[in-house]
Amino acid sequence: MKVLVIGASGRVGSDLVEKLLADNHQVIGTTRQDQQLFDADNYSQLNLDITAEKDDIQKQLADDIDAVYFVAGSGGKDVLEVDLHGAVKTMQAVQDKGIKRYIMLSTVFSLDTSKWGNPAIADLKDYYIGKHYADEWLVNDSTLNYTLVQAGALKEQVGTGKITVNSDKAGENAIADVAATLVAVLDADSASKKVFHIQNGETPIKEAIASL
Amino acid sequence: MKVLVIGASGRVGSDLVEKLLADNHQVIGTTRQDQQLFDADNYSQLNLDITAEKDDIQKQLADDIDAVYFVAGSGGKDVLEVDLHGAVKTMQAVQDKGIKRYIMLSTVFSLDTSKWGNPAIADLKDYYIGKHYADEWLVNDSTLNYTLVQAGALKEQVGTGKITVNSDKAGENAIADVAATLVAVLDADSASKKVFHIQNGETPIKEAIASL
């Protein structure tokens, strides 16, 4: 498949691109950096500014893209422009371009504000608000075939290939397993129009995705 | 009518409350300040924190409120918590309480992102993004009988009682005329489920509202 990864230089994004390339997908990675991030025949790169106007974003999208990942993040520095409005503009551009599949990496309990009293979340309140309204747009206002993958704290841990889905409590996530989960949902019918959260766990990723 | 004014100490809010009191409405003004803002038999005050959880906001709402005004604003200092999520939580609380009428003061072109290249708006981008998603929630996701009044730059000018509605260009607004417009839409059928912007102009306010 031809896949666009928005935020290819990030911690999850770079691992995701590597895995997609290894699976022989044609990958376009977006970054604001000039240097080429990956050296592979099936990789190309796009300098995409998601703070630009929606129509300018749309013009930069290739016609034959099959699926889009959003794994960009402002790191809390520009939540309104990047995590909220930047994300929604990419959804609108993708939708108006006629691309159907959109996979969003988000954060655990982004849609469930009743869980926001948790101290770990309260410290990230602005970030949660930004992700919340972007995720709400995707789920309630778009016509995209979305998958919304919500992760907890991202850790530089060795991946195990195993996760737990939709636990009542937030947990940690090995970045490699988040990236592997994003790859696994790409063409999984069971993940179509699904919202779920993941953490380090005991179920092989493919099996966890099949059970959604 | 019994009317709740969220943001009663603001420049528009205080003028709005005065006009509603003069019209013999029962007014509850919300503020974070301790001192009583107005001395009138038909005025009472509520210390309402819109950064609290939605259920806690809802518990503070009287059962017999007929209409709610949202004229609060963070002044750009807390856009995510106040102008966006705080506003939406008041909509949700009002709706879940069974109150139907909700009147929002917003900013010109809040829903029309194609106009955001205008330099005056570009300087206020974060504020516009916050207002945009709050206004979208009101118009697209709520079941409230809303009126969304969008004003341009607010000025301490003498009110003329006249406005122009839905000009192609943004303009200035005498605060007194914004407050008078908000009063005029309160029970105007023509303003039900309407979005419009106002500026200083030539049409008497009642006539302008009747023509919506």
Which geometry of chain A do the CA atoms define?
globular
Structural class of chain A: alpha/beta
Total DSSP helices of chain A = 7
Strand order of the largest sheet of chain A: 3-2-1-4-5-6-10-8-11
Query: SSE order of chain A in H/E notation?
Result: EHEEHEHEHHEEEEHEEH
Question: What is the number of strand segments of chain A?
Answer: 11
Looking at how many chains there are and whether they match, the oligomeric state comes to: homodimer
Q: Largest interface, with Cβ-Cβ < 8 Å?
A: A-B, 21 and 21 residues
- For the termini of chain A, the CA-CA separation is 23 Å
Binned, the helix content of chain A reads 25-40%
For CATH, the homologous superfamily of chain A is named as NAD(P)-binding Rossmann-like Domain
Provide the CATH top-level class of chain A: Alpha Beta
Q: Strand-residue fraction of chain A?
A: 15-25%
What would you say the CATH architecture of chain A is? 3-Layer(aba) Sandwich
Taking the sheet with the most strands of chain A, its summary is: 9 strands, mixed
Q: Which regions of chain A have little confidence, pLDDT < 50, spanning 5+ residues?
A: none
Description:
The structure is a homodimer of 212-residue chains. Chain A has 212 residues and is of the alpha/beta class. Chain A has a single domain, classed as NAD(P)-binding Rossmann-like Domain (Rossmann fold), CATH 3.40.50. Chain A is built from seven helices and eleven strands. In chain A, the strands form two sheets. Chain A has a nine-stranded mixed sheet, with helices on both faces. In chain A, helix 3 packs parallel to helix 5. The longest helix of chain A is centred in the middle third of the chain and has 19 residues. The mean pLDDT of chain A is 96. At the A-B interface, helix 3 and helix 5 of A face helix 3 and helix 5 of B.
